[in-house]
């Protein structure tokens, strides 16, 4: 009975993390859409933030980040293609937690680096751009912001029915381990937290490393609430 209780408690914690992250992303995407709604959007042209828009967006991002329990970083990412007047431009208004402070990562200032990395090819940007639906990617190593295993929740920002970018929220796997491991260790069986493609986030056993795929599971294994983007696998 205790094991079942521990599993249920851990599942509730997983759902709490997912719920907070997705609701924050959705709310911030709506706020961003409102901030940008005063301008006319040309299809396929993207958007560059004005000073006023950036200041308003920074206020909302910092407010959301300050309230969040699990989030490491939040930002807006958008792309403006090259035209006759300007070169292409990657917008990345990004803020992150460092200790008790919120700091800005001034990644947008380095456009050559953005061209090299080009976040348009990353699933957290590409999938919402194509489907106009939220998307969760990870765990993966984030080479743009933190160089660590990360889970990113991205929500499309729509203005006048046009996609202009995403609100992205980063959760560090190292931080999630501190949240989940106490509950995992209470479960006597091998227990693994995976994403919806069976990639390991963390576990209570050395046999499953972060980022690896769970390719084969015993017949006796149980996935608790398999419809969730973060799932508990008990072997």
Count of individual domains: 2
CATH architecture of the largest domain: 2-Layer Sandwich
- Given helix and strand content, the structural type is alpha+beta
What is the count of helical runs?
A: 5
Major beta sheet summary = 6 strands, antiparallel
Strand line-up across the major sheet: 3-2-1-6-5-4
Give a count of the beta strands, DSSP E runs of length 2 or more: 10
Query: What is the overall shape?
Result: elongated
End-to-end C-alpha gap:
17 Å
Helix content: 25-40%
Series of H and E elements? HHEEEHHEEEHEEEE
The third-level CATH topology of the largest domain is Beta-Lactamase
CATH superfamily of the largest domain: PAS domain
> Low-confidence parts, pLDDT < 50 over ≥5 residues?
none
Average pLDDT rating? 90
Provide a descriptive summary of the structure in words.
Pfam families: MCP-like_PDC_1. This is Histidine kinase. GO terms for molecular function: kinase activity. Keywords: Kinase, Transferase. There is one protein chain. The protein is α+β, with helices and mostly antiparallel strands and 235 residues long. It has two domains: 10-172, PAS domain (Beta-Lactamase); 178-232, no CATH class. Helix content is 35%, strand content 29%. The chain is built from five helices and ten strands. A six-stranded antiparallel β-sheet has the order 3-2-1-6-5-4, sandwiched between helices. The chain has a four-stranded antiparallel β-sheet with strand order 8-7-10-9. α1 (2-36) runs antiparallel to α2. The mean pLDDT is 90.
């Amino acid at each position: 009975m205790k094991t079942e209780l521990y599993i249920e408690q851990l599942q509730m914690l997983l759902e709490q993390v997912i719920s907070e992250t997705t609701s924050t992303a959705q709310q911030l995407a709506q706020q961003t859409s409102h901030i940008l709604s005063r301008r006319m959007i040309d299809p396929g042209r993207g958007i560059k933030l004005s000073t006023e828009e950036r200041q308003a967006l920074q206020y909302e991002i910092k407010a959301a980040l300050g309230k969040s329990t699990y989030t490491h970083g939040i930002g807006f990412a958008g792309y403006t293609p090259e035209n006759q007047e300007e070169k292409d431009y990657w917008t990345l208004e990004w803020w992150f937690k460092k200790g008790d402070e919120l700091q800005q990562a001034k990644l947008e200032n380095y456009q050559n680096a953005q061209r090299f990395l080009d976040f348009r090819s990353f699933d957290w940007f590409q999938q919402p751009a194509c489907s106009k639906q939220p998307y969760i990617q990870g765990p993966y190593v984030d080479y743009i912001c933190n160089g660590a295993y990360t889970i990113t929740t991205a929500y499309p920002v729509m203005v006048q029915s046009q996609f202009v970018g995403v609100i992205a929220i980063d959760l560090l796997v190292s931080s999630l381990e501190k949240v989940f491991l106490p509950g995992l260790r209470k479960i006597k069986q091998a227990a693994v937290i995976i994403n919806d493609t069976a990639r390991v986030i963390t576990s209570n056993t050395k046999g499953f490393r972060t980022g690896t795929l769970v390719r084969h599971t015993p017949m006796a294994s149980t996935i608790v609430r398999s419809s969730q983007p973060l799932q508990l696998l008990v072997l």
